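Render this sequence as a predicted structure.
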Amino acid sequence: MRRRRFLTATALTGFAAGLGTTLTGCDGGGFGGGNGNAGRLGFTNRLKIPPQLRPRRDGDGVRRFELGLRPGRREFRPGEVTETWGINAAFLGPTLRASRGDRVAMRVANRLPETSTLHWHGMRLPARMDGGPHQPIEPGTTWSPSWTIDQPAGTLWYHPHPHGETARHVYKGLAGMFILDDPESRGLALPDTYGVDDVPLIVADRLFGEGDGRGRDIAERAVAGSTFGLLGDDILVNGTYDPYFAVTTERVRLRVLNAANARMFHLGFSDDRTFQVIATDSGLLPEPVEADRVRLSPGERVEIVVGFAPGERVVLTSASGDEGIDEEDFDLIRFTAARTRWQRGRTRATPCRT
């Protein structure tokens, strides 16, 4: 093991162990695809960036978010239309954002044909606001939790948590990021322009059907019925198949969420460049950790800062492992740096927290 990989492993001890809530409870192995996609992509589709949902702020100062769970349809691959679910959209949901000390109120309307919930993964809040299996939202009804944000800055996410159906509901598209800020994080010299140099990446594998798409129904049933979860042959990033991101700054902060059903990713770049790990599930680290690859289990998040030079192209990849749920090599997304209109922005390395 090279020294920088050892640093990553030791500095991020408990990275997976502290999660405790993978989407499937898998213990090695998985149903479905066994083929990686390395070398098969053309990187032809611009990465979709989930919109930030602007809350309504009333006279009482509460930030009010309106969320609707609904069915939809999405053409991920050319000529193939998939039945999906989404939150305020056909697939996935908007990025929510709040700051420490904010009072937030959610209004979650269920327009799906079945009962679901909405859980705030990683959030410190009263149990009655958590959105777990004990707080079902029946079709045609609305749930309205509210709480005060009382935790440091970090990258969280939200998703359904109905008993016995969590994996299937997330697989169909019900998920989104929830970014928390605090005064200390805003004072750090970290990239912070959303969608430009502060980029969310919701990464998940999928098993698509052939021809008329009937195989997709099989995949959906497998998610619900397989003990070890579903492993797919294709990758979606923010719901984008075969994606690329146009880089315009020297450094980019990537907030990566593993939203896969069972697959573990070993993230790194095709040229083995190093990057700085600045945050994990628990928020910002005391100081950056240099690495060239990092492991991410289902449900986990990691924030990294990576440097680019004008005109270069590099692919974010996942290397094959030996855990059963991480086999095969995958290309996730290509970063294409602009040759002109280069922005320097907030780029210097800095301790994450003092």
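Summary. The first helix runs from residue 3 to 11. The chain has a mean pLDDT of 87.
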